[in-house]
Amino acid sequence: MKVTEHITKAKKSLFSFEILPPIRGHDIKDIFSTLDPLMEFNPPFIDVTYHREEFIYVEKENGLLQRRKISRRPGTVGICAAIMNKYGVDAVPHLICGGFNKQMTENALIDLNFLGIDNVLVLRGDSIKSEKFFIAKKNGHKYAIELVKQVTNLNKGKYLDNTFFEQKKSPLFDFCIGVAGYPEKHLEAPNIDSDLFFLKKKVEAGADYIVTQMFFDNKKFFTFVKKCRSEGITVPIIPGIKPISSKKQLNSLPSRFYLNIPNELVKEVEKAKDKKIVSHIGIEWGIHQSKELKNSGVEVIHYYTMDKPENIYKIVQAIY
Ligand code: FAD
Question: To test ligand 1's pocket by mutation, which of 19, 49, 96, 124 has the most ligand atoms within 8 angstroms of CB?
Answer without folding.
Answer: 124
